[in-house]
Amino acid sequence: MDKIIEVQGINKTFLKRKTKETVTAVKDISFDVHRGEVLGLLGPNGAGKTSTIKMICGLLQPNSGAIYINGLDIRKKRLKALRHISAVLEGNRNLYWRLTVRENLEYFAGNRGLSRKEIAARVDQLIGQFRLKEKENELVNGLSRGMQQKLAIAVALLAETQAILLDEPTLGLDVEISYELREIIKTVAKEEQRTIIISSHDMPVVQELCDRTIIINKGTVVVDEKVENLLKLFETRAYSIKLCSELSPSQQKKLDVSFPLSTYKGSFRQPVVEVNLERSEDIYDLFDIFKAEGTVVESIDRTSIDFEQVFMEIVKGENNYAMA
Amino acid sequence: MQWLNLLTSNFRKEYIEMKRYLPNTLALLLTFYIIFLGAFFGIVFIGDPSSFEANVQYSIISVVFWSLTMMTMNFIGFSVITEAMRGTLEQLYMSPMGVWKIMLTRIVGQFALQSVLMVILLFAAMLTSGQWLSLNPVTTIPIILVTMVSMVGVSFMIAGLAIIVKQIQAFLQIFQFVLMGLVFVPLSIAPFLVFAPFVKGVNMVRTVMMENLTLTQLPWTDYGILAANSAIYLVLGLIVFHRCEKIAMQKGLLGQY
After folding, report:
1. Helix, strand, or coil here: B162?
2. Under an 8 A CB cutoff, do B13 and A89 touch?
3. For labelling alongside B237, which of A115, A219, A293, A318 has CA 20 to 30 A away?
4. Is there a domain that residue B257 lies in?
């Protein structure tokens, strides 16, 4: 597959103005994104996602390392590289609120050097695709946040670039518009074979849209893996164990100490322990706790795990997520 | 061709926004008219009666040029600040055309629109004072166009500084009085101002309009000085702008306000 975005060992530090302290935002990050791939770029606040995205867009210069967009070095051939990439960086703030929907689209298309004829055709197409026809002559100021977000994404799609970066594309949207946008993103990636990087805190969206995910924490890449592989890996170690009797207080204490992320739901009907094991063999230690006081296990089931849990586990660093 | 598309697009945006903010635009025009009235009645009541006509004509041209320079040059500084606040500045930086080209087309668009307003102000001032200046467009328009190049240069310097120093508003407020000084003080009193941007051009236009001169009646050295002044300020402006852009990209200042 063609590499559309290549990030090679980028580093970025900032100097704090008041304390003159050097802060490392990004430390030796490398990854590639291929044609038609949807990549989720995740991480807690302050992890270095935004700095990475801005460096890919050429809005921020790395201290070292290189970024290529369709083979063009963004640092050396910035304007040529920008012909292949577009972005929604600040959602609805990327728009001119005193212009109408159509005027915004026309203005941004003109700013990319498109002719009037090209602009008219492309704007009409996007207004249709994003179902904005009824709103095309309304000022952006008067639109709902969802509509504004739709328009911001439509603006990013104007130039038919090969790579699109979307920062929090579904933030604060209602269910209907969020669904509509997810469908559009799927179409753009799969049918038009465009490369998309999504930075989001909305884990169900990442799980649904992304083929692969990169998790950044403290400026470095913690995980670079396909979403389905991550889910499988964690799924195999997540268990729901039904017990025939309650755990004693001493057993519960041992469970808390040995398996801090486990949960025990004591109940007269069916006590259950839910646990996510770091290593598969840890299950023997768990069984030792039950066996110590003769607690009988009724059943053991693998539990389904959502991407949010996977993300939390990885970021907390409380799991051995190294892929086999 | 892409330049033309860019110019059309930015001119249209400036025009639409000016129309949408029409009350603001008209209020600004009225402000300049009131300033002219202040100068005019000052000349009527306390000025030297023997040089009444010359003084009124001088003040008409000076007020018109002051408003034109101020609205064109300060515009770009405020424009960058507003874009940074709105969050659209980074989006402009995603354009493969380059922001300096976008800014240039905006300045040209703004200059064209402000020129129309200034013609209205000029006629209003002439009508009020009863002093009719020789507009002489064949002579004045080329001089104004060359003068505008130096204004573009200064505008780029302001835009560059606005990118890295977001609290530039205070400076822009003071800057309008600096512009006033540059436009109102005649070169005969302060010849060193020939090195300042656009002063030579304003002085030439004033001479043409007050003395009804043609293009060939002005010394060629004046044109040479004007062209050199404009070229130097344009180059300086672009250098400052690009340098400021580089600093902003190194320090991550484009998206900050």
Report:
1. helix
2. no
3. A115
4. no
Asked if A297 and A244 count as a contact pair (C-beta separation under 8 A), the reply is: yes
Predicted confidence pLDDT, tens digits, chain A (324 residues): 589 999 999 999 988 877 888 889 999 999 999 999 999 998 888 888 889 999 999 999 999 999 999 999 999 999 999 999 999 887 677 899 889 999 999 999 999 988 899 999 999 999 998 889 999 999 999 998 888 988 999 999 998 899 999 988 887 778 888 888 888 888 888 888 899 999 988 888 888 899 999 989 889 998 898 887 777 766 667 888 999 888 999 999 999 988 887 888 886 678 999 888 877 788 889 999 999 999 999 898 877 767 777 777 777 664 444 443
Residue A275 φ then ψ, to 5° = -145, 145
Q: Which CATH number fits domain A236-316: 1.20.5, 2.60.40, 3.30.750, 3.30.70?
A: 3.30.70
Nearest CA in chain A to B248: A60
B5: chain A residues, CB-CB within 8 Å:
110, 113-116
Report CB contact under 8 Å: B254, A60.
yes
Is B256 contained in some domain? no
Taking only the tens place, the pLDDT of each residue in A95-121 is 998 899 999 999 999 999 888 999 999
Nearest-angstrom CA–CA distance, B52 and A310:
84
Please check whether residue B16 is in contact with residue B109, taking contact to mean a CB–CB distance below 8 angstroms: no
Within a domain: residue B186?
yes
Query: Exposed/middle/buried for A20, CB within 10 Å: 0-12, 13-18, 19+?
Result: exposed
Residue (of B61, B78, B157, B65) closest to B111 by Cα position: B65
Amino acid at site B10? N
A109 to chain B: which residues are within 8 Å by CB? 9
Domain range for residue B97?
2-251
Q: How far apart are CA A224 and CA A230, in angstroms?
A: 10
Q: Please state the ipTM of this predicted complex.
A: 0.87
Write out the residue limits of the CATH 3.40.50.300 domain(s) in chain A: 3-225
Q: How far apart are CA A147 and CA A79, in angstroms?
A: 30
Q: Which CATH architecture has domain A3-225?
A: 3-Layer(aba) Sandwich (3.40)
Q: How far is CA A148 from each of CA A33, A202, B88, rounded to the nearest angstrom?
A: 28, 19, 14
How many residues are given for chain A? Answer: 324
Residue B176 domain flag: yes
Give A184-234 pLDDT, tens digit per residue: 888 888 888 899 999 988 888 888 899 999 989 889 998 898 887 777 766
Determine the residue of chain B that is closest to A106 in CA distance.
Answer: B9
| A263, two tokens | 């949960």
- Partners of A112 on chain B (C-beta within 8 Å) are 95-97
DSSP A130: T
Tokens describing residue A293: 């006081």
Nearest to B52 by CA among B42, B39, B43, B61: B43
The SS3 of residue B242 is helix
SS3 track for A169-196: CCCCCCHHHHHHHHHHHHHHHHCCCCEE
- Cα A110 to the center of its chain, rounded Å: 31
SS3 B166: coil
The number of distinct structural domains making up chain B is 1
Please give, rounded to a whole number of angstroms, the shortest distance from the CA of B84 to a CA of chain A: 10
